[in-house]
Design brief:
The protein contains 23 helices and nine strands. Strand 8 and strand 9 form a beta hairpin. The chain is mainly α.
């Protein structure tokens, strides 16, 4: 090699190999406005190293959970040389690791949370708020290695945090397993536009004075334990203003004021903040650090880099006198002393008590012969200063047992909120309680024979309800499903209850008519079948009829066994987050949004767990079935409405037509030769003919030899949506 070659490395040009760096030109650079169809194929089987027949639920059931917990206890009460524990205990570390994994959950779309163990990957592993959480995971690695496939990273991290609280002395509420690990970062989650850690809040709020105007979803740099700047809004210590941010952001986690106070106080009852050094000495984050840093990131070049030199938030100190014990010391210190503004060695703004008794000071985390002042963040001080938070805090201070109960339940909710109904939970530590945030659904006590199903289908088709009414009611009931947190879906028939029965997107008048008829049919049955089953069966029967009309003799599968939830089992407030603002499958958008309708379609398809081909075939089928919202004609590219034909794709791909915009989200499909308008359409319709990837699917279904395939694929996708929430039989 020449000297120049040695300096630059041996010649190997990118063109000689694959595109291995994201910094290089991407295919998508050639169509910058392209749809992100990758969200429909994320977590592809090719990324999953597990065997195709691997069954995590079965593996978990073979796990000796008590043995795992004992191993965790031993680890918690140890200190590893490579990352020494504070106070000889990893209680604080494992609590924080679990909290920051679970605390990324957001109720508006159900994404985030502990379900996937996504803290292993960017962006979570590299958010400044998550400094050193992966060190907590690495500490758990010997246990993960030992039990292997029997426990996922998501389950192990949450279990470790729960056992840590038990070691501290808290009677926890329980633990449920069942979190399936992913093997690559999610592509569907929009974490906000911010690139700067703790940027001015004016960049995140539409109105800086209206704290509810925070960007939705919350920006990545604010996700984690408390979502707000611990030094105060914009770095200005003002607990009352910080309280406003806490209220908004904890609500987005699904927590009310009482849960917020309990989680904040309970989280800070154990562990300490780390800021005994200079922030400028910290190295690059996890994904930016070079290979010698072992994928850990944030290396502190000062001293040992760990132990007493550990840097995390920049704040420094414990909140309580005994940071490894579950007790009421947080509120004791908060209310007993006056607190003044000060700064940590790292320069972070925090609060310290005035004239604190020596015995109330916690000992140094690594030198038991030295006592240190405790500290409070602006969020902690908010629990004392905000009138509503203070009322709750005073009750907790007066009644430690009540604090323990509320916190234990809130911790359980925090770490399990994204797991769906209790039927998905695994293990002996799952509580028997039916909690309203789990969206409980009564089980049914009947089984339907094939003959009984056929009899019911006949009754439904001959009830006077149209096929469109039956299909739309079934679809609207099922489309609320979110694969992100396993909420929604047709099981429970909550479309009959507030708030769903009144949602504009559900066409309340049509819905009321259909439900009344279904209740009438139900009342006349010898075997009382649930309304939930009748809703799905009605749509299924109508789809089957439409397939037969297309000349395809197919039986659409139906899985009975759905229960009917009651209004008392339904948390109205939390279900507002499932309110449909759009439904590309029924060609409807509630309002004029800044996001294009086709992008919203992708979001809905992803939450429903659909692939791009499944989304395509469902849209094409729903159009020819005439299922558009309020019966609008856009996209109904057929003269045979109600027949499950491939006409939508045939006409969309036919080049004898051109497309002319005639209004907001409205186009005419015009015969090139005559100039006559044949049909009208929306962007959601036309994207299947204009986007190169979606058109490739549309062309498959437009082929003459794929008419039957179209019907079979539509039926399969329909059944998938109808059964998406049937965890009781999966």
């Amino acid at each position: 090699m020449t000297q120049n070659m040695q300096a630059s490395g041996c010649p190997f040009h990118q063109k000689d190999g694959g595109q291995t760096s994201l910094a290089s030109t991407n295919n998508s650079d050639w169509w910058p406005n392209a749809l992100n169809l990758d969200i429909l194929s994320q977590q592809d089987k090719k990324t999953n190293p597990m065997d195709p027949d691997f069954d995590y639920a079965a593996a978990f059931k073979s796990l000796d959970l008590e043995a795992v917990k004992q191993d965790l206890r031993e680890l918690i009460n140890s200190s590893q040389e490579w990352w020494p524990s504070d106070y000889g205990s990893y209680i604080g570390m494992f609590v924080r690791t679990a909290w920051h994994l679970a605390g990324s959950y957001r109720k508006q779309d159900g994404r985030g949370g502990a379900n996937t163990g996504n803290q292993r990957f960017a962006p979570l592993n590299s958010w400044p708020d998550n400094v050193n959480t992966d060190k907590g995971r690495r500490l758990l690695w010997p246990i993960k290695r030992k039990y292997g496939n029997k426990i996922s990273w998501g389950d192990l991290i949450v279990l470790a945090g729960t056992v840590a609280y038990e070691e501290a002395g808290l009677k926890t509420f329980g633990f449920g397993g069942g979190r399936l690990d992913i093997w690559a970062p999610e592509k569907d989650i929009y974490w906000g536009e911010e690139r700067q850690w703790l940027a001015p809040t004016a960049n995140r709020y539409a109105n800086d004075q209206d704290r509810k105007s925070l960007e939705n979803p919350l920006a990545a740099v604010q996700m984690g334990l408390i979502y707000v700047n611990p030094e105060g809004v914009d770095g200005v210590q003002d607990p009352l203003r910080t309280a406003q941010d806490m209220r908004v952001t904890f609500d987005r986690m699904g927590m009310d004021d009482e849960e917020t106070v309990a989680l904040t106080a309970g989280g800070h009852t154990v562990g300490k903040a780390h800021g005994n050094g200079k922030a400028e000495n910290l190295g690059a984050d996890v994904e930016s650090a070079d290979v010698e840093f072992q994928g850990l990131g944030w290396h502190n070049s000062e001293g040992t880099g760990n132990g007493a030199n550990t840097m995390v938030s920049g704040l420094e100190g414990a909140w309580t006198t005994h940071p490894t014990k579950w007790d009421n010391e947080f509120f004791y210190l908060l209310f007993t002393y006056e607190w003044e503004k000060t700064t940590s060695p790292a320069g972070a703004k925090q609060w310290e008590p005035i004239n604190i008794k020596e015995e109330d000071k916690p000992v140094d985390a690594h030198n038991p012969n030295v006592r240190r002042n405790p500290m409070m963040t602006d969020a902690d001080m908010a629990l004392k200063m905000d009138p509503e938070y203070r009322k709750i805090s005073e009750r907790f201070y007066a009644d430690p047992a009540y604090l323990s109960e509320v916190f234990a339940r809130a911790w359980y909710k925090l770490t399990h909120r994204d797991m769906g109904p209790k039927s998905r939970y695994l293990g002996a530590d799952v509580p028997n309680d039916d909690l309203i945030w789990q969206d409980p659904i009564p089980s049914v006590d009947y089984v339907l024979s094939e003959a009984e199903i056929e009899d019911l289908k006949a009754k439904l088709l001959n009830s006077g309800l149209t096929s469109v009414e039956l299909i739309n009611t079934a679809w609207d009931s099922a489309r609320t499903f979110r694969g992100s947190d396993y909420r929604g879906g047709a099981n429970g028939a909550r479309i009959r209850l507030a708030p769903q029965k009144d949602w504009v997107g559900n066409e309340p008048e049509r819905l009321a008519k259909v439900l009344a008829k279904l209740e009438e049919i139900q009342a006349g049955l010898a075997k009382k079948v649930s309304i939930a089953d009748l809703i799905v069966l009605g749509g299924t029967a109508a789809v089957e009829k439409a397939a037969h009309a297309a000349g395809v003799n197919i039986k659409v599968p139906f899985l009975a066994g759905r229960g009917d939830a009651t209004q008392e089992q339904t948390d109205v407030y939390s279900f507002e987050d499932l309110l449909p603002k759009h439904d590309g499958f029924r060609n409807w958008v509630k309002e004029d949004y800044s996001v294009q309708p086709e992008e919203m379609l992708l979001d809905r398809a992803q939450l429903l767990g659909l692939t791009a081909p499944e989304m395509t075939v469902l849209v094409g089928g729903m159009r020819v079935l005439g299922t558009n919202y309020a019966g609008t004609p856009e996209g109904v590219l057929t003269a045979r409405v109600g027949v499950l034909s491939n006409d939508f794709f045939v006409n969309l791909t036919d080049m004898k037509y051109n497309w002319k915009p005639v209004g907001k989200n409205r186009y005419e499909i015009v015969d090139r030769a005559t100039g006559a308008t044949q049909w009208t359409a929306t962007r959601v319709d036309l994207v299947f003919g204009s986007n190169s990837i979606l058109r490739s699917y549309a062309e498959v279904y437009a082929q003459d030899d794929n008419k039957e395939k179209f019907v079979k694929d539509f039926v399969a996708a329909w059944v998938k949506v109808m059964n998406a929430d049937r965890f009781d039989v999966k």
